[in-house]
Amino acid sequence: MELEDHHHLVPNVFLFVERVCYPGWNIQKSKISFHDLTFVVEGKAQYVVNGVKYNVEAGDLIYVPGGSIREAHTCKKTPMHAYPFNFFWAEPHNHIQLPFDVITKKVITKEILGYIREFNQVWMNKEPFYMIQARALFELILHRLLSNNRRQTMALVDLRIKKLTAFLSDHYSDDITMNELARQFNLHPVYLGKLFKLNTGSTFKEYLNRIRINNAERLLSGSGLTVREVAERCGFEDLSYFSKVFKELKGYPPSIIKKC
């Protein structure tokens, strides 16, 4: 399941520093339970994550998910200057990983750096309710990283899948099958299914259900339609199945919206 499906993720940052390394700086080898998201702004270092060596430099993002074995040392000639965020996802979601490699090259933009420096001021001043503001700024940083990552990923998507997903956005309420789509695109259904999963990270059914449920949520909160009427308009003939899928994706039943 994609990260965007986890609407209840709440990051709790417990450690943040402006890390200006001295020549002998290092992190001793240990297994971490938290997530380490580090932005390198100057210098160089070498990280070893789960036995694999990574060389990092200014502009790079380091992501070490919880459960990893991590160690590191700075380059003595050009010590690293970085901003690490160590955080947990609020339970029971700490196992969820961000969709980044251990090292993402040249990811730090002026906008992200501005958020980081603002976070640093809030974290250092510790004025009343600073944790709320700090969490909001960290979520802005995550949002920008994820948005940029998604745009880069979509740029690499197969043109046939782009056309297919555009078709689904317009015809999500229709009775659509993979066999019918395969005929439209002159592809074998099995091959199209694999191509779809490779490019979107979801199966055809998962993707279609997500579009249908997102539109159902909009209709439930902004129209006078009943739950059954919304289900039918969004392509679900079986009301119980609609309610089941809705709760799985949103975390609450569709009837909750109608009661609000």
UniProtKB/TrEMBL annotation:
Keywords: DNA-binding, Transcription, Transcription regulation. This is AraC family transcriptional regulator. It comes from the Bacteria. One of its GO terms (molecular function) is sequence-specific DNA binding. Residues 162-260 form the HTH araC/xylS-type domain. Transmembrane segments: none annotated. PANTHER family: ARAC-FAMILY TRANSCRIPTIONAL REGULATOR (PTHR43280), HTH-TYPE TRANSCRIPTIONAL REGULATOR EXSA (PTHR43280:SF2). Gene3D superfamilies: Homeodomain-like, Jelly Rolls.
